[in-house]
Write a structure and sequence with these properties.
By secondary structure, the protein is of the alpha/beta class. It is 30% helix and 14% strand. The chain contains eleven helices and ten strands. Strand 5, helix 7 and strand 6 (233-237) form a beta-alpha-beta unit.
């Protein structure tokens, strides 16, 4: 054989594929080791209010989450910081409600929080259906469109949705059966006089009938839309039959079934509660001392139907210290119904109150 004088034959370059295979094998081994270590240490992870930490069966403070550096080993401490709490979609409901009425303009001009704070309040009340029947938001309900109840100009819904997602607890006030607009759609929705005319109260406002199913469906639809806009509470005002004005002129019949007024008001509250059931919202009703004590039957409001369906009852402070609204509601089965006093001159530290126009 011919001598090569110390030179070996040329074998070519190392294949890149071989390098890649070796690299993949090394990475796979490292990954498998990391996964195995993670699975092994997972059993020793303890979650506390201060975050997550390792509690091992042997003394390795740098893995156990001690904040101080190790005394002997000189290792580095590993501290798992707690995750920040998720932001709330809506403010927490205050234990004692301090509700302050504000105009809708305060939502758009940014003065709402200052107005509420100036009165010592914790919640804002906005009129979403006025005494004339006009809405302060744009409704998709056909009856609202036909009655011309939607506001003209810019759509305030986006601003309301943003406001309801802020720090203030928000209450939407609905003037229910006092309504000047629905009569233009169908006069049969209204309470009538003995002569067949549309009845109106001493303020010149027309009233729809709680016994009319289309009227009740319209009001529950409005409330559901407002809950969908993010309001925390729905306050029903004028949520009974009228008690002031020329009541003797009212025609007794289908629109004003004397002797059954409380039945239809209770039906309305039940339907309202059912419409709001899919939403995380509080249902409140404004009433009077006479209705709660049973001295006024013409409104159809009773302690029983309020106790059955309302989460909160708003009323003027009682005349006389012998009247206890909470006790009356509790006796009617509403032990958990809260009472909000409207415009009290003096309120205790735990009392809920509201300032309304």
């Amino acid at each position: 054989m011919r001598e090569r004088y110390g030179y070996q034959s040329y074998r070519g370059r190392v294949s890149p594929r071989r390098v890649l295979v070796v690299l993949v094998i090394v990475l796979a081994v490292v990954l498998a080791a990391v996964v195995a270590l993670y699975l092994y240490l997972q059993r020793y992870v303890v979650y506390t209010d201060e975050g997550a930490r390792f509690e091992l069966p042997f003394d390795l403070p740098f893995l156990s989450g001690e904040s101080a550096p190790p005394q002997e080993s000189g290792g580095v401490s590993i501290v798992v910081e707690p995750s920040p709490a998720p932001s709330e979609a809506a403010p927490e409901e205050p234990e004692a409600l301090r509700a302050v009425w504000i105009p809708l303009s305060a939502v758009t001009d940014g003065t709402a929080a200052a107005l509420v704070e100036a009165e010592g309040g914790t919640a804002a009340v906005l009129d979403m259906k006025g005494e004339d029947g006009r809405l302060n938001y744009v409704s998709s309900l056909d009856l609202a469109r036909r009655a011309g109840a939607n506001p003209e100009g810019d759509d305030p819904n986006a601003a309301l949705r943003a406001f309801n997602g802020g720090e203030l607890y928000t209450v939407a006030r609905l003037c229910c059966f006092q309504d000047d607009l629905l009569r233009t759609v169908d006069r049969e929705m209204n309470i009538l006089t003995n002569s067949g005319y549309l009845w109106y109260d001493e303020a010149g406002r027309y009233w729809t009938s709680p016994a009319n199913g289309e009227v009740r469906a319209y009001l529950t639809g409005v409330a559901a839309e407002l809950a969908g806009l993010g309001f925390d509470e729905i306050l029903l005002d004028f949520a009974g039959y009228p008690t002031a004005g020329q009541l003797g002129w009212i025609r007794v019949g289908e629109s004003y079934p004397a002797g059954e007024l409380d039945r239809w008001i209770g039906q309305f509250y039940q339907e309202m509660a059912q419409a709001l059931e899919p939403y995380d919202v509080t249902l409140s009703v404004r009433t009077t001392q006479a209705a709660l004590t049973g001295a006024e039957e013409r409104s159809g409001q009773t302690a029983e139907n309020l106790a059955a369906w309302a989460d909160r009852v708003w009323a003027e402070p009682p005349e006389g210290t012998e009247t206890d609204y909470a006790a009356l509601l509790s006796a009617a089965g509403g032990e958990d119904v809260q009472v909000v006093l409207i415009g009290p001159a003096e309120a205790g530290a735990e009392d809920s109150w509201a300032l309304l126009p």
